[in-house]
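Bit of a strange request maybe. I'm writing a small parser for structure token strings and I need a real example to test against, not something I typed by hand. Could someone generate the tokens for this chain?
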Amino acid sequence: MKLTVFGATGGVGREIVRQALDTGHDVTAVVRDPARLTVTGERLEVVRADLTDPGALRGAVAGRDAVLSGIGARTRADAGVAARLTRAVLAAMDAEGVRRLLVVSAAPLGPVPEGHTVVDKAVLAIINAVLKDIYDDLRAMEAEVAASATRWTSVRPPKLTNKPVTGRYRSVVGGTPPRGRSLARADVAHAMLAMIDDPATVGRGVGVAY
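Reply from user aminoacidic:
Good idea to test on real output. This should exercise your parser:
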């Protein structure tokens, strides 16, 4: 497949690029600073672009089978970037008639899983309070995506780690895996690539966790 990856220099985005190349896909990585992308490959095209300008992104998404986005705030000071940049991606996709989109969100935006204990709920409340700006940004991003003409999927992992890919994790379409504490960025990327052709995930949030 021909894939375009946004946020390709981030932890999840870089893994999407690496794993997609390893499995034989043609990948276009859209970045602001090509020097920060350490992945290389014959099937990789690196496009430097202003991610706030839909016109500058159209060539990067034209003719692609799917767009995968790892765009998101890395710190509370960056809150707002996910919704703002995803809006530009959606406009570029709409202009080029590209429909399949997968984005990274976060587990707290999904429904509370069954069996959540009082302690679990207390911890979740603290996390939501501390990271409120980032989660509000992701909610705005999800709203933009849901209102678009794309065949979207929002992937919602819990705490992210830098462990190697395992390919072994739980996923719940429209829900949240109970007692899901963490997931490696590499396995988030693995899950997103696996969902591209999965019709059950279209128009849904998908919780993923170990």
